């Protein structure tokens, strides 16, 4: 299997990678870069646990081939907070106990971050539409909606 | 709600694991890195639901470059089980469900393991398969376990060798038959539930390492690292101190990660490649096909009341479809047996609760442990009986529900609860007396009620141990063996320890991952038992540490221990008003006068808890002094509407109230109540589906739908009441499972209120509702 050299800008840093043609972005992040915050829930694009931002847009990283992404910008959960400074969205998830087991949380945070970037004041319905592909078995979702609204009221996700 | 003097019990402090989980720092099993030495593995699964295994040829698989080992169950006598030791690690002579592991392949990459698994050649001889537990319980049914009589079994489980019945629990109380004959009203019905999956977002994953020294380490997605160690150690003849189970945070369990699922397979494969860690990670498809399920149930219920609506008698038969192996399911049938009436006073009861082998996946623990299954029928039949006798469903329940001190079905006296208070709160929140208009002319709206009870279902003597260890700066590490699955148990034990020790909550850190090499013993994280049992152990450990501190300071000051307390990290004397910061003495102790020696030293508190008062039940009558430690009760009310053109059902409001004994962390209770209501709602629409050949046909999120963010009720009205029990920390008991037990029947009752049709079988799919509406229309 041929190996492909590419560079990704991950959380602001340029990373050089050697990947196979069938390596997904999910595996590139986890297995090649050791960024384990992005979770593998189904590898079929059905649960949203592996959501990351690709040039600011949310994608299921299990459905994107790494070789197609040379030079593109990726943001993962590890890139959300800096020097201990949480984003308002992360803070709202913590404050409202919108987290239980935590396995869906990175994907939820990334998908919600993307939503707030394009729509700073989403309605409940907007949030439901944006997160319908992110499954959670623990929380019952309402606190996740509430957290996104709380973050939006504070201005922005970032 | 009251808050303790230290202010932490009853306070909604934030989760201890919250920051880890919102920053991506939380480590789950799949996130642990093992480097290039790691090997990968894949299981070979039976394509038949029931077949004899004539031969397994591994040669082609072994010859594939990169394959390091292929293991089978050949020559392996080992079986697994908690209550009934009936399950092989790899099926060797017979496969009993579609997807059962028959071999395991270890290779240098996941891809090679997948390719090699396809090269393992297995000769099967198909056998007749049986799926319906009622049919499987008949004498002429094809037998799954001809050797049932040889399996080791717990002394409170009663398998029937020569049949598929792995447990038969009986209640014989009063004379149900005679009483029913004289009842003013009787309701009767058969109710069915399909098997459903737990569907945690994290799939089952294990890494096992067998070292040349004989030491085995197993990293596993586990709710019960100690029970897992015990079962695998016993099965494979490994000493407990040579088997180390490390269980990081669990990405959702719901019972599916209790006991042993696939972890013993990983250990056996690792033993074949000494010195190299072997990873076994289930795909999402395998999570649906190859893990345990909530058992199916067919329940036959007959219940009668007198002219005043007072319950007189019940006759019940529960047929639990236990699947291929019932090592856990037998205790579900037992729990359903001793709680068979639901939360009602019924003087005459005849009940038979059976666990029956079927050719479905292994039936096992799932959130509620038999209670969602039995309440599905019970809570609908109570509505029917209320209607029969002309009473409002809420009034009927208020009249008949169990109260503190009542003699319940198993003969024990009910532990303190207040179910009426729960009923009051839900009926108020849902506006029970108000008929509300649907939101559109093509819809009908209705309301339904359901109540529940559940006791922790476990052996009589499951224990908890805890250690509270001080650091130099008077922060503490709380060491426990119970697991954080998302329910918030680490937060609660940190609160408990900090409260007892008079230190800030932020100064208490729970030591995790749970590691059987270092963590104190905990039976299992199941049965909603940790706040109660592990909470008691942590409280005792903190009290032990507190006593050590006060003893040292009292001697130092020449005062009485009774005159001292700890507040805000200071030991203070009420008498002399002296103060001593904890960080001056919790490690280094205190000097005697003129430094002539020292007293005290590093403070390490230890505590344990084990219930000592549960008694055996008579095998013929199910009667005994104390069947269980206690019960938790609750009520739910549902307000929904149905689209008459599509059969689509929308839950608008759920009111959900439980008696938690004492709320240690009120907001965490609310997170359980809210999440459980949605889980319970989702469960009403879920089914693991099989074709005629016994194959699972919906093993993906697309075909097995769980509730999404778009499906949730418009509002969940959560609340709790507090009737303290005498054996819980500050009176607290568990509530993690109860919150979904009666959601499905509450929905069914509301559906009846809306459209006048009773649905006795789950799931409540839109097509089923539509067809029933259509049929009603045409009548």
In CATH, what is the homologous superfamily of the largest domain in chain A? Beta-grasp domain
Largest interface chains and counts: A-B, 53 and 54 residues
Helix/strand/pairing category of chain A: alpha+beta
Please tally the helical runs of chain A, counting DSSP H or I stretches of 4 or more residues.
5
CATH topology of the largest domain in chain A: Ubiquitin-like (UB roll)
Percentage of residues assigned to helices of chain B: 10-25%
The span between the termini of chain B is 53 Å
Largest sheet of chain B: 8 strands, mixed
| Total number of distinct structural domains of chain B | 3
Helix content of chain A: 25-40%
Largest sheet of chain A: 5 strands, mixed
Please tell me what the overall shape of chain B is: globular
Counting structural domains of chain A, the number is: 2
Terminal CA distance of chain A reads 40 Å
How many β-strand stretches of chain B?
Answer: 33
What would you call the structural class of chain B? alpha+beta
Q: Which oligomeric state applies? A: heterodimer
Radius of gyration of chain A: 15 Å
For the largest beta sheet of chain B, what order do the strands appear in spatially?
A: 3-7-1-14-11-12-13-24
What portion of the residues of chain B fall into strands of 2 or more residues?
15-25%
């Amino acid at each position: 299997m041929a190996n492909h050299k590419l560079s990704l800008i991950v959380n602001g840093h340029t990373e050089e990678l050697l990947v196979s043609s069938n390596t997904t972005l999910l595996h590139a992040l986890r297995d090649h870069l050791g960024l384990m915050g992005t979770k593998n829930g189904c590898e079929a694009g059905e649960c949203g646990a592996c959501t990351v931002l690709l040039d600011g847009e949310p994608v299921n990283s299990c459905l994107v081939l790494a070789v197609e992404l040379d030079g593109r910008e990726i943001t993962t959960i590890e890139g959300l907070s800096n020097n201990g400074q949480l984003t308002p969205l992360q803070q709202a998830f913590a404050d409202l106990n919108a987290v239980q087991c935590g396995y869906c949380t990175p994907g939820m945070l990334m998908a919600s971050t993307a939503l707030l970037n394009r729509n700073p004041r989403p309605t409940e319905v907007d949030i439901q539409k944006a997160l319908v592909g992110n499954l959670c078995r623990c929380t019952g979702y309402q606190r996740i909606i509430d957290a996104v609204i709380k973050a939006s009221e504070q201005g922005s996700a970032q | 709600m009251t808050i303790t003097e230290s202010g932490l019990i009853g306070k909604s402090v934030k989760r201890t694991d919250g920051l880890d989980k919102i920053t991506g720092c939380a480590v789950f099993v799949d996130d642990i890195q093992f480097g290039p030495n790691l090997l990968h593995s894949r299981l070979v699964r039976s394509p038949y639901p029931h077949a004899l295994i004539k031969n397994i040829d591994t040669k082609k698989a072994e010859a594939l470059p990169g394959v390091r080992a292929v293991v089978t169950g050949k020559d392996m006598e080992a079986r697994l089980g908690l209550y009934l030791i009936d399950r092989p690690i790899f099926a060797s002579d017979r496969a009993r469900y579609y997807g059962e592991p028959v071999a395991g392949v270890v290779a240098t990459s996941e891809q090679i393991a997948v390719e090699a698994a396809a090269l393992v050649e297995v000769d099967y001889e198909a056998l007749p398969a049986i799926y319906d537990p009622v049919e499987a319980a008949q004498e002429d049914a094809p037998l799954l376990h001809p050797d049932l009589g040889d399996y080791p079994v717990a002394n409170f489980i009663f398998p029937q060798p020569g049949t598929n019945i792995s447990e038969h629990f009986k209640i014989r109380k009063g004379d149900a038959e005679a009483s029913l004959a004289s009842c003013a009203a009787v309701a009767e019905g058969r109710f069915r539930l399909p098997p459903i999956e737990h569907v945690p977002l994290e799939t089952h994953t294990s890494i096992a390492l067998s070292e040349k020294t004989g030491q085995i380490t197993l990293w596993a997605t586990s709710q019960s690292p100690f029970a897992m160690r015990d079962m695998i150690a016993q099965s494979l003849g490994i000493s407990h101190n040579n088997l180390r189970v490390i269980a990081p945070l669990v990405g959702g369990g719901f019972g599916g990660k209790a006991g042993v699922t696939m972890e013993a397979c990983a250990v056996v494969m690792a033993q074949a490649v000494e010195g190299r860690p072997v990873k076994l990670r289930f795909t999402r498809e395998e999570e649906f096909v190859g893990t345990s399920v909530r058992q199916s149930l067919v329940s036959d219920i007959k219940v009668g009341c007198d002219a005043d609506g007072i319950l007189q008698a019940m006759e019940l038969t529960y047929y639990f479809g236990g699947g291929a192996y019932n090592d856990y399911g037998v205790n579900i049938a037992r729990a359903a047996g001793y709680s068979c009436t639901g939360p009602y006073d019924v003087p005459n009861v005849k009940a038979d609760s059976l666990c029956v082998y079927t050719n479905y996946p292994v039936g096992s623990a799932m959130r509620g442990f038999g209670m969602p299954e039995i309440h599905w029928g019970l809570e609908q039949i109570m509505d029917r009986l209320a209607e029969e006798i002309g009473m409002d469903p809420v009034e009927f329940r208020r009249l008949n529900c169990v109260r503190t001190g009542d003699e319940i079905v198993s003969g024990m006296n009910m532990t303190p609860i207040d179910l009426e208070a729960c009923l009051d709160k839900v009926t108020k929140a849902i506006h029970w007396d108000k008929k509300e208009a649907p939101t559109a002319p093509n819809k009908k709206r209705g309301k339904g009620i359901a109540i529940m009870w559940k006791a922790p279902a476990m052996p009589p003597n499951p224990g908890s141990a805890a250690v509270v260890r001080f650091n130099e700066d008077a922060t503490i590490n709380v060491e426990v063996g119970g697991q954080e699955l998302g329910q918030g148990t680490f937060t609660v034990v940190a609160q408990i320890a900090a409260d007892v020790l008079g230190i800030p909550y932020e100064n208490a850190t729970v030591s995790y991952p749970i590691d059987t090499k270092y963590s104190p013993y905990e039976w299992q994280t199941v049965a909603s038992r940790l706040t109660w049992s592990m909470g008691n152990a942590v409280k005792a450990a903190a009290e032990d540490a507190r006593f050590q501190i006060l003893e040292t300071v009292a001697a130092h000051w020449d005062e009485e221990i009774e005159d001292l307390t700890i507040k805000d990290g200071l030991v203070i004397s009420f008498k002399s008003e002296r103060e001593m910061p904890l960080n001056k003495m919790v490690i280094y102790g205190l000097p005697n006068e003129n430094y002539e020696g020292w007293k005290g030293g590093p403070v390490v508190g230890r505590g344990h808890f084990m219930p000592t008062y549960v008694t055996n039940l008579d095998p013929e009558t199910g009667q005994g002094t104390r069947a269980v430690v206690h019960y938790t009760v609750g009520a739910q009310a549902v307000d929904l509407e149905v689209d008459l053109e599509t059969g689509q059902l929308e839950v608008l409001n759920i009111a959900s109230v439980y008696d938690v004994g004492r709320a240690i962390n009120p907001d965490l209770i609310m997170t359980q109540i809210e999440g459980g209501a949605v889980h319970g709602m989702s469960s009403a629409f879920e089914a693991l589906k099989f074709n005629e050949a016994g194959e699972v046909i919906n093993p993906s999120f697309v075909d097995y739908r769980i509730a999404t963010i778009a499906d949730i009720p418009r509002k969940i009205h959560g609340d709790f009441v507090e009737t303290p029990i005498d054996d819980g920390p500050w009176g607290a008991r568990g509530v993690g499972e109860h919150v979904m037990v009666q959601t499905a029947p509450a929905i069914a009752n509301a559906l009846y209120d809306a459209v006048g049709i009773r649905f006795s079988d789950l799931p409540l799919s839109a097509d089923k509702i539509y067809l029933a509406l259509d049929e009603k229309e045409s009548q």
